[in-house]
Specification:
Layout lengths: L16 E7 L21 E6 L3 E3 L7 E5 L20 E8 L2 E8 L3 H9 L32 E5 L2 E5 L3 E2 L2 E3 L6 E4 L10 E2 L3 E2 L6 E6 L6 E6 L5 E7 L11 E2 L3 E6 L2 E3 L1 H4 L6 E3 L5 E7 L8 E5 L4 E10 L2 E9 L14 H6 L4 E9 L5 E5 L5 E5 L11 E6 L5 E6 L4 E6 L4 E2 L5 E3 L9 E9 L6 E7 L7 E7 L9 E5 H4 L2
Antiparallel strand pairs: 1-2, 2-6, 3-35, 4-5, 4-36, 5-6, 7-8, 8-10, 9-12, 10-11, 13-14, 14-15, 15-16, 17-18, 18-21, 19-20, 21-22, 23-24, 24-25, 25-26, 27-28, 28-29, 29-30, 31-33, 32-33, 33-34, 34-35
């Protein structure tokens, strides 16, 4: 039974042991950039804090670690800072026996180390013009700093930190968060890995794609559960594209060619202007997991953009995919937001939950909007990935003021709002020890509070009593900036 908000304060403890591991002074003047101040402002310390203070009670069958990635820049940007530019920092809460330990560590990418040595920003940002004089970097044409700040997937005993466009996967110890080094999958990584790789919970395989402004415009790859790259295929596209996510089932993988990409004429002049082409269809390429370009079957649907897939599975002859469909692929900027208005418009991520059905025999496509509400940053019980699932946990957008639990079988939803001045984004599902069904567990997330200057918080929701509010609020002895994607790793895998 979930503890109600009214009773939550009765169980607060206030004894936390904090060790400052490292401090790096932040050398940034935020100016008018909203993504360098407030709940986005970077922090200067790496700490380890044991036996955290709790309002409520941490369930003893919540056993594992919640890891969340995000940007935490150190040096003043060379140009206009984009939220995706900041150095990667992972924040983690490890739960065991009703207690919690917090850690945070910067990801020591090659770019991070180089800028520490130089004591300044070296690379331009996502909104700047390329600089031919900087060292080889990351991104679709290798001129950006690889920050590894976007996603985290757990594979072969490590957390892999991935970057927004395409970069090198960085291995992290899932418990200490220390950077182990670049994962090259037995030396066979051909180029890079996009932000959203997928792990099959049954086979343990890692599936990923990458893309570039030069041929091959896209590649597709499969890595074994033991970390060996076992399959690589070059995928033909009409030109340079800008996909963000992919999908998979037990037998198939789906890749995207969507009509939001860089203006090809401007790209020839090294100008990276993202443009929407509504006259073009959305194309979805479905192929056998170990297939080649010749095996890809392309399906056309109405033009759109998709940042994040919820899940996908097979039903008879159909490949079914739930995803967050962006309402306006090239959103309008708002007055009064200055030179960063276009960036802020894209980062609102206004989308709706939709379902696509691709018939692998007839080629027919069916599209269905599942909800009118604007939600994004979806998560599910990861044990259901690639198989039919019922529940999804999404963030309310564009203001990140709460979470929504979807029951896609019944077509219902329930919402929990954080309260005034409090925000969060992605919230992973954590199965409880001995879970009996799909939503038998907890939803955990960092919550940023504009009024809390020096503290952070993680809330724990009972997934079966979602709208009742948190059963526990875990206090963090430093502020945790708003970030990106996350993962849940059970204790038996962390300490294996």
């Amino acid at each position: 039974m979930a503890v109600t908000r009214g009773r939550l304060g009765a169980r607060e403890r206030d004894f936390t042991m904090v060790k400052i591991e490292r401090e790096i002074p932040i050398q940034i003047d935020p100016g008018e950039n909203p993504f360098l101040g407030g709940v986005f402002a970077p922090i200067a310390t790496e700490i380890t804090a044991d036996d955290l203070s709790v309002i409520g009670e941490i369930p003893k069958d919540l056993d594992g670690a919640y890891l969340r990635n995000g940007p935490n820049p150190i040096f003043q940007p060379r140009g206009r800072y984009h939220w995706f530019d900041g150095d990667g920092m992972v924040h983690a809460l490890e739960f065991h026996d009703g207690k919690a330990t917090y850690r945070n560590r910067w990801i020591r990418t090659d770019g991070f180390v180089a800028e520490q040595d130089a004591r300044r920003a070296i690379w331009p940002g996502l909104m700047d013009r390329p600089d031919p004089d900087v060292p080889h970097g990351a991104g679709s044409d290798r001129w950006l700093k690889d920050t590894a700040n976007t996603d985290l997937v757990f594979h072969n005993g490590y957390a892999l930190a991935l970057w927004y466009q395409c970069g090198l996967p960085y291995k992290l110890d899932p418990r200490t968060l220390e950077t182990v080094g670049v994962e090259r999958f037995g030396g066979k990584l051909a180029r890079s890995v996009s932000a959203h790789a997928k792990v099959d919970p049954v086979s343990g395989e890692l599936l990923f794609f990458d893309y570039a402004t030069i041929r091959p415009y896209m590649t597709y790859n499969v890595v074994s559960a033991r970390g060996e790259l076992t399959h690589h295929a070059e995928i033909d596209l009409p030109g340079s594209r800008l996909p963000h996510d992919m999908a998979f089932t037990e037998n198939y993988s789906l890749l995207m060619d969507l009509p939001l990409f860089w203006d090809p004429q401007l790209l020839e002049r090294k100008v990276h202007k993202v443009t929407y082409y509504p006259e073009l269809p959305s194309r979805f390429g479905i192929m056998p997991r170990y297939g080649s370009n010749a095996d890809v079957k392309w399906f056309e649907a109405s033009p759109c953009y998709i940042y994040h897939v919820v899940n996908s599975w097979e039903e008879g002859d159909e490949f079914v995919m739930d995803a967050c469909r962006v309402i306006q692929a090239e959103p309008n900027a708002k007055r009064g937001e200055g030179e960063l208005a276009r960036m802020r418009a894209f980062l609102r991520l206004e989308a709706q939950l939709c379902r696509w059905r691709f018939n692998l025999v007839t080629g027919a496509v069916k599209e269905e909007q599942l909800d009118d509400a604007k939600t994004e940053w979806p998560t599910i019980n990861r044990l259901k990935m690639g198989r039919k699932s019922r529940y999804a946990y999404n963030s309310c957008v564009p203001h990140y003021e709460g979470l929504v639990k979807y029951d896609t079988m019944r077509g219902t939803s329930e919402k929990y709002l954080f309260g005034p001045g409090r925000t969060s984004n992605e919230a992973p599902f954590a199965p409880r020890v001995g879970a009996k069904d799909e939503d038998d567990g907890y939803v955990v997330t960092f919550v940023a509070d504009v009024n809390a200057k020096n503290t952070g918080e993680v809330i724990i929701l009972d997934a079966k009593n979602f709208a009742a509010g948190p059963i526990a609020r875990v206090r963090i002895p430093q502020r945790v900036p708003t970030g990106f994607h996350s993962t849940w790793v059970p204790t038996d895998q962390i300490r294996a």
